[in-house]
Amino acid sequence: MTDEDGRLTRMKADVFKALGHPVRLAIAETLRDGPRCVGEIAELTGAERSNVSRHLSLMAAAGLLDSRKRGLMVYYRLRAPCVLNALACVEDVLRGKLAESRQALEGL
Q: Model's pTM, two decimal places?
């Protein structure tokens, strides 16, 4: 593995770390339909505004989000909406695992 490959691998891990919290996953899914401000995101995720702001900063630092200020409001959007494809893939894995568990329980 080259130094560049190693850096890229670490950067990928940073992106996954930035998604590795339930609130941040909810934020990403909330932004599926387009840009939203902190208040909207907090309301839709059920998290406190200050908590949402902290998570948004972390996600932006990892390169997952862009922001744009309109008047007094800051709107956040997914920089790469394709990250939702990765989340859908994880959901497929979990649904398969759940189906296997159900089958095993039915066999008892």
A: 0.85
